Input
Amino acid sequence: MLTAEKPTSTRSGAILLVRLDRQSSRPLSDQIYSGIRTAIETGRLVSGASLPSSRALARDLGVARSTIILAYEHLRKEGFVDSALGRVHRVIARAESPRAGPVRTPGRAEPTPAPLSRRGARIAAMPFDGFSGITETPRAFRTGVPALDLFPVGIWQKLLARAWRRSSTRALGYGDPLGYLPLRQAIGQYLRSARGLLCHEDQILICAGSQQAINLCAQLTFDPGDAVWMEDPGYAVARHALAVNEARIVPVPVDGAGLDVRAGIEAAPRARLAYVTPARQCPLGVTMSIARREALLAWARASDAWILEDDYDAELRYASRPPAPLWTLDPNGRVIFVGTLSKILFPALRLGYIVVPPPLVEAFRRLRVLSDFASPNLLQATVAEFITEGHFERHIRRMRTLYQRRQELLVHVLKKRLGDRVEVASSDAGMNLVVWLPPHLDDRLVVAEAKRHDLDLMPLSALTVAHHRRPGLLLGFGGIQEREIVEGVDRLERVLRLIRRD
Output
């Protein structure tokens, strides 16, 4: 039996597979009717989906147009499609049609999935709900969300359109794995002038945000099972990225001076990597002291280890200049510097960068080719113009002022409404702050109750592995408007009152 299977594209862009057996005595119009009906009943064609025109489908299948018209008319009579002369043929909603979930084939047993690898099983079992609670309009007090309502969308649209007009067919290709050269040059100039970080443009790799940067660094700096220092409490996304790459996470306590290097040496003196946020520790907001910085660099040199410096929130310091990066104090090339543009501009941008010591540049270039090759050229070109025309630094200044005002409001309202019931650890930078709860409370229970009052809170216990402190909450305010900040504190006060009664 000869069976022809020809995919045909619908007007909506979907691909429809129609099976024809030209040796069968069954009319082709019946075969086409049955094929489309099966696609509807199994959910391959959903309610409202448009079918190809009779002319287009006849051409794709190599049959007469009248054959397609007969099949469509049969479908119309049985209530599967709405088909009228001169109109698009659309699938009609049917009560028995599947609405969600995977497509089931009638009469076929449910398949048994093959087992995951050991690594895959560990990833699947990780207790991570990083996407829960995300809404289009962030509510109090979602962390990690910038003030998107004040982003200069008009300027961005003009630069994006200009980048498209100036682009050639070369821009439609893969591009340099290190990234778009003008963007690397612009970032290099910004780092030199604003952060005092001297590097060549060929040491900068553009990537898809800080999370991919951490993944790339992990793959090149340690082997599965190697010890890796991680700040405790620390940035959960970084911890998960390191764990996915099979690091043996060594939680190192953080105090008012930053990472406790002596404790790290006692726990794992031969660790291969230390992940740190020295400019503004995530989540506590402290700045690593110069003594701790020097001790960390000395350890890396003596242990032949790497330091992954995440420049977390460094640009968002309200008054003083950000502290000098560890990179600038390192004469031995042990520091890999990671920064992100997505948090300053907007999360959907998904662009960040890595500043790589010269001996590692070629390894990073090859790994980028093997992972996803490069970031989109058009976005990189737009960001390059955004930086070189001064919009980036103007936006940073504006956000510093805004975030300082919003933090001051949040601190004022917290102290007014909650008084001595909490301790507010305000900071001079960033988009979030820590609120310490009374010792007898469970911060996870507070967060669970807060969700029922339309609040998004982060418990500090979720960011802690071993060195547990008193219970606390991480409150984000960057993308939360002033009125919502006030109303959010009111709801938080009600939550704490309810929990105290329990």
In short: The CA atoms of residues 188 and 199 lie 7 Å apart. The two ends are 73 Å apart (CA to CA).
